């Protein structure tokens, strides 16, 4: 009989834990818009976007904003601290300059903590914990919307040599705080999926290994338990869209070393979510799950959770495309072949790094039956066809804007020749590619990985769909999530 008592008690404690935390989680989710920091509305944020917010928190009672370092270009690295508890919780974001989702969520959390609401929960947090936020560790990379810093190195591979001022700052702050818990906040590719499913890995977690053997001590076990709790939260709002990041030990990485140095470290990777290009829904999930995890640490409820549930989280896989065309007929050298086409839309930064346009590519083709798409089109019965150049040369883009593009696509035209293409015009706003006066287009369709995906889908002698720069357009009703086509001068 005694053999059954302990598992039963653990099960009951776990049930009570989830019940207690569910109330605050649901409330955080439903009230999110109240605390969303509205001035951070897009992914491409820069340090100057954060400065007014940091200046604001310098003047808020209970908040301390300190300069803790500078980047290679001399940009300030700031630490925002609040709370009086013994347990030190350290959160840092945007170690990679093009991974901003959690930076936005941090300022949502700060706005929540500043508000007069949720007093009981905030009292539990701020009397038991001291919170420290280091948003945008790599402001130079953020200014260029690039992963690496100005030294050209990955800061997350600088934990041993400490050559970057940003890496030195991260270690110095961690050491000075002797942080009990650390949240290492990143973005990952939107093309990761939860293993063996078509669902994107919207959030991936990891309690990093601290040695090659992947041993689990109390420090790492606590991180695993917090992840078990966070997974339970995300499953309510994005079911099946949580995965586990690869836990191979990387001796140069900060997460692995911070775990080794005694801080229970939780890696959070924000991936993809359907129709969430600017990752605002994922930002919300970060806000809810991180705040709930902080509350769980404050109440110590995470300790009742079973780390075996951590191992049940599926692994990350990389089997997603933006668009997958299935089972189309492709004619090459007068022979017909059945083919799948996997297409990704690659972002190209504008000159000031504040926006982007798409230059899409075929990533793979052939039998892609083990792959998935955010958008999947069953092309059985359709034949892929090469598009044509509209025979009339147009003088300007303004003049071209009066054309009926859906009608042109139905007629098989995918390219538009324009005499005067503005020098600063980087992409076509129309669902046809713009080409210069002398640019030549082949009259035969030739598909290969790496080429721009532009073709028509013909059925019963009529063009029913078009793929232009990787965007699928329904030619019956004009529907399709189109953003831009290309310019070939």
Describe the structure.
With 489 residues, the chain is of the alpha/beta class. It starts with a helix and ends with a strand. About 3% of the residues have low confidence. Helix 1 packs across helix 10, helix 5 packs across helix 10 and helix 8 crosses helix 10. The strands form five sheets. Strands 1-2-4-3-5-9-7-8 form an eight-stranded mixed beta sheet, sandwiched between helices. A four-stranded mixed beta sheet has the order 13-12-11-14, with no helix packed on it. The protein folds into two domains: 316 residues, Zn peptidases (Aminopeptidase, 3-Layer(aba) Sandwich), CATH 3.40.630; 169 residues, no CATH class. A hairpin with a 2-residue loop joins strand 11 and strand 12.
Write the layout of secondary structure elements.
Elements (H helix, E strand, L loop, with lengths): L1 H29 L1 H4 L11 H12 L5 E7 L5 E8 L3 E7 L7 H14 L4 H10 E6 L4 H5 L21 H13 L3 E7 L5 E2 L8 E4 L11 H20 L4 E3 L9 H7 L3 E7 L9 H20 L8 H4 L4 E2 L2 E13 L2 E15 L6 E11 L5 E7 L4 E3 L2 E2 L7 H4 L4 H6 L2 E5 L15 E3 L19 E5 L2 E7 L2 E4 L12 E2 L1
Helix pairs in contact: 1-10, 4-10, 5-10, 8-10
Family: Belongs to the peptidase M14 family.
Organism: Maribacter vaceletii
GO molecular function: metallocarboxypeptidase activity; zinc ion binding
Main features:
protease; Aminopeptidase; 2 domains; alpha/beta; elongated
């Amino acid at each position: 009989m005694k053999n059954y008592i302990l598992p039963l008690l653990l099960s009951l404690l776990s049930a009570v834990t989830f019940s207690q935390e569910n109330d605050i989680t649901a409330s955080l989710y439903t009230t999110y818009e109240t605390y969303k920091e509205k001035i951070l509305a897009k992914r491409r944020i820069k340090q100057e976007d954060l400065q007014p917010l940091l200046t604001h928190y310098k003047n808020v009672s209970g908040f301390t904003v300190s300069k803790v370092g500078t980047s290679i270009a001399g940009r300030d690295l700031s630490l925002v601290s609040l709370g009086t508890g013994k347990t030190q919780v350290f959160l840092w974001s945007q170690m990679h300059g093009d991974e901003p989702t959690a930076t936005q969520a941090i300022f949502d959390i700060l706005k929540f903590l500043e508000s007069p609401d949720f007093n009981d929960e905030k009292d539990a947090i701020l009397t038991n914990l001291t919170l420290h936020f280091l948003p945008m560790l790599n402001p130079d990379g953020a200014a260029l919307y690039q992963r690496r810093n100005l030294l050209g190195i990955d800061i997350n591979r600088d934990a041993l040599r400490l050559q970057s001022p940003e890496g030195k700052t991260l270690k110095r702050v961690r050491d000075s705080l002797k942080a009990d818990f650390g949240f290492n906040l990143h973005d990952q590719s939107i093309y990761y999926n939860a293993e063996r499913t078509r669902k994107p890995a919207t959030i991936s977690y990891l309690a990093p290994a601290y040695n090659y053997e992947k041993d689990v001590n109390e420090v790492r076990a606590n991180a695993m338990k917090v992840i078990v709790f966070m997974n339970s939260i995300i499953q309510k709002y994005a079911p099946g869209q949580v995965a586990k990041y690869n836990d191979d030990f990387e001796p140069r990485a900060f997460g692995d070393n911070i775990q080794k140095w005694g801080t229970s470290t939780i890696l959070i990777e924000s991936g993809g979510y359907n129709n969430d290009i600017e990752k605002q829904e994922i930002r919300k999930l970060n806000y809810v799950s991180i705040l709930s995890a902080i509350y769980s640490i404050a109440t110590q409820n995470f300790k009742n959770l079973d780390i075996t549930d951590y191992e049940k989280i599926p692994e990350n896989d990389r089997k997603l495309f933006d668009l997958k065309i299935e089972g189309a007929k492709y004619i090459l050298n007068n022979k017909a072949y059945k083919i799948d086409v996997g297409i990704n839309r690659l972002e190209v930064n504008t000159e000031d790094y504040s926006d982007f346009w798409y230059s899409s590519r075929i990533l793979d083709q052939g039998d892609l039956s083990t792959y998935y798409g955010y958008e999947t089109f069953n092309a059985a019965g359709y034949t892929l066809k090469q598009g044509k150049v509209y025979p009339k040369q147009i003088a300007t883009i303004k003049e071209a804007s009066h054309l009926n593009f859906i009608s042109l696509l139905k007629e098989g035209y995918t390219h538009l020749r324009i005499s005067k293409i503005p020098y600063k015009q980087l992409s076509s706003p129309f669902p046809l590619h713009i080409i210069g006066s002398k640019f030549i287009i082949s009259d035969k369709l030739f598909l290969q990985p790496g080429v721009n995906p532009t073709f028509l889908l013909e059925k019963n002698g009529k063009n029913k769909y078009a793929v232009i720069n990787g965007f699928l357009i329904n030619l019956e009703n004009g529907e399709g999530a189109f953003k831009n086509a290309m310019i070939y001068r």
